[in-house]
Amino acid sequence: xxxxxxxxxxxxxxxxxxxxxxxxxxxxxxxxxxxxxxxxxxxxxxxxxxxxxxxxxxxxxx
Length: 62
Description:
The protein is built from 4 helices and no strands. It is mostly helical and about 60 residues long. The longest helix has 11 residues, at about 40-50.
C-alpha cells in the first residue's frame, strides 16, 4: 500500500505502531507487500495516521 508509506512520512514503523495500535509486524508485512490489512487494521491505521489509505467507493469516471 503506497498510501501507507506516504502517510507514515518520516515516522518509523515503531512510531506508527504506537500511534495506531497496530503491531509492528503487521505494518511491516503490509509495507513489504506480503499481506493486505483487514478492515479493522485499515481503520486503525487511517484513524491513527489521519489519512485515507483506501480509496472511497466510486461509480467510475464522471
